[in-house]
TrEMBL record:
Signal peptide: none annotated. Residues 1-74 form the Glucose-6-phosphate dehydrogenase NAD-binding domain. This is Glucose-6-phosphate 1-dehydrogenase. It comes from the Eukaryota. It is an enzyme of class 1 (oxidoreductase). InterPro entries: G6P_DH, G6P_DH_AS, G6P_DH_C, G6P_DH_NAD-bd, NAD(P)-bd_dom_sf. Catalyzes the rate-limiting step of the oxidative pentose-phosphate pathway, which represents a route for the dissimilation of carbohydrates besides glycolysis. Residues 77-371 form the Glucose-6-phosphate dehydrogenase C-terminal domain.
């Protein structure tokens, strides 16, 4: 087994040498390829084409470590083995879905690598889109790798290519807080002073199929924000003709149910429900039905890479990305990335350690959505 965590420009040379002079004569030879898988549709297709000169598709394991995370693995279990969720998993009951990734640090010396790719390629086109495909796919025929990957490809191909109007990009600027000065992205010595590379992006994605027609899937990813974490938030529709409307006051949004899957840190799944506060009056309160992993399970949660490496050794492809899946993912983002670069779109600046650019709120508001991670009791 060969694990390629090397710059993409030497991928092919390494694979060529490995396949010609270090392959197993009996048994198997497998190659794990770390992202980035190209920069756009063309470079990704060229990479696949070149890899396939030396390897069969079933020898290539494109690794996305987010697919090995415990709560991403649990997403299908939660949905397909619980009667309380499966019937609700559609436009009829779900108002919007949010996929949120945030880091509370900047590029810190990795700017040279990052500047060539930006946050959309680094986080959205792979990690967040993979989670979205797993979340939104139809029920697979079985748990077999090919059956699952077939459904992921189908749902990716139903997505409308992203338009500039549905995307907000940002870049962090320097900021002083509590006497400490935090640097701007372009203060990184490995980043050009005039760089327009986004360190933050938010996007609204729509899936053109019967299950999800009209439901906004909002993605958000950024560096140098106020928190660190990754989560999936499912906001359900309002209860029709809600009897308790008066008890909620004017903000009906506070009364909708929300399912939150906290992928990291401090893994948890919780459901926000409405509840009557104890007492003689009728006061309602939002409470969490909470499955907190640390409290419920004493076992240590394995690292995502541990699981994926074990899968690769066992030849289990379920959590690895197939080439047609990669093509569909790039088809969604490539037109947008070209437009951003060709038109030199300037990112909105946001202070290091803030909640990100204001534009992200306007994007959500355009689709009548509020980011769940910014509410007071998130």
């Amino acid at each position: 087994m060969f694990y390629l965590s090397v710059p993409p420009n030497v991928f092919i040379d390494v694979v060529k040498c490995a396949s010609k002079s270090a392959s197993s004569l009996n048994g198997w030879t497998r190659v794990i390829v770390e992202k980035p898988f190209g920069r756009d549709s063309e470079s990704s297709a060229a990479l696949t084409r070149n890899l396939k000169q030396y390897l069969e598709e079933d020898q290539i394991f494109r690794i996305d470590h987010y697919l090995g995370k415990e709560l991403v693995e649990n997403l299908s279990v939660l949905r397909f083995s619980n009667l309380v969720f499966e019937p609700l998993w559609s436009r009829q009951y779900i108002r919007n879905v949010q996929l949120i990734f945030s880091e509370d640090f900047g590029t810190e010396g990795r700017g040279g690598y990052f500047d060539n790719y930006g946050i959309i390629r680094d986080i959205m086109q792979n990690h967040l889109l993979q989670i979205l495909a797993l979340f939104a796919m139809e029920t697979p025929v079985s748990l077999d790798a090919e059956d699952i990957r077939n459904e992921k490809v189908k749902v990716l191909r139903c997505m409308k290519p992203l338009l500039l109007d549905d995307v907000v990009i940002g870049q962090y600027k320097s900021h002083s807080k509590g006497g400490i000065s935090y640097p701007a992205y372009i203060d990184d010595k490995t980043v050009p002073n005039d760089s327009l590379t986004p360190t933050f992006a938010a996007a609204a994605i729509f899936i053109n199929n019967a299950r999800w027609d009209g439901v906004p899937f909002l993605m958000k990813a950024g560096k140098a924000l106020n928190t660190k974490g990754a989560q999936i938030r499912v906001q359900f529709r309002h209860v029709p003709g809600n009897l308790y409307k008066k008890s909620f006051g004017t903000d009906l949004d506070r009364a909708t149910n929300e399912l939150v899957i906290r992928v990291q840190p401090d893994e948890a799944i919780y459901l926000k429900i409405n509840n009557k506060m104890p007492g003689l009056g009728m006061r309602l309160d939002r409470s969490n039905l909470n499955l907190h992993y640390a409290a419920r399970y004493s076992k240590e949660i394995p690292d995502a890479y541990e699981r994926l490496l074990l899968d690769a050794i066992e030849g289990e492809r379920r959590l690895f990305i197939r080439s047609d899946e990669l093509d569909a993912a790039w088809a969604l983002f490539t037109p947008l990335l070209k437009e951003l670069e060709e038109n030199k779109i300037v990112p909105e600046l946001y202070p290091f350690g803030s909640r990100g650019p204001v534009g992200a709120h306007y994007l959500a508001a355009k689709y009548n959505v509020r980011w769940g991670d910014l509410s007071a009791e998130h």
